[in-house]
Design a protein that fits this description.
alpha+beta; Glutaredoxin; about 10% strand; about 270 residues; 5-stranded mixed β-sheet
Length: about 270
Amino acid sequence: MRSTFSMFRYIYLLGIGLTGPMRRLIGIGFLLLFMASPINAFDLENLSSDEKAIFGELVKEYLLNNPEILLDVIERLEELENEANLEMDREFIEFYADEIFHDPNSWVGGNPEGELNLVEFVDYRCGYCRRAQQVIQDLIEANSDLRLVIREFPILGEQSDISSRLAIAVFQLAGPEHYEMIHDLLLSLEGPVSEKVISEVAEMTSLDLQTLMDKMVDSSVLDVLDTNYQLAQALEINATPTFILGGEVIRGFLTLEEFQYELDQLKTATN
């Protein structure tokens, strides 16, 4: 195995008239190409400078005569990267499962005792998050063992931030039932979250307006957002909606049928 990595390092660094990403691509390509060949027994560390130069020219000639191999390399490289990312996601989610699925500062819907966990990173100004709302509701109705966790993740500007801080403030001051109502309201709100809207939310939740506004800028609310941002960064989540279903990260909007398929796959894997 040591000779394989030595070979890769030398191919990667050889001066064969190519630079930057192309040189990296060639190195990875030849690593994959030669892993199944007798050259595994050939340690390039023992080559002289002239021999290395000759070998580099052979590599260059091979690529020039067979450029189609680069397409195979790119496809395989993407597969390997995707597999590695999926495995890292699974390991992270498994290690931090309690923080991800049982955060006391996040609202829980569906069946709170359900065995199947679905986490949604949501931005109230995100059009796809609004479309996903009905899909998620239908998914919950069709799966009595589904437990939904909402993570506020405002990334689309000031209005997104105000909306999330308002929702979290309601959750902390008035409890989960009022949060659900305001969550649904914010996902359907057409205009900006103005002081008038905040005043209406205070009235709907029987909260004092000034108390609600003060809570929106309180450190306890900002800490929730900070925690969600850190979690998203660790999982390389940078768009909404993004979901965590079991040990998988699902990026982007899914139809009800697509979501049900993913859920059925999880059920099969856990049974």
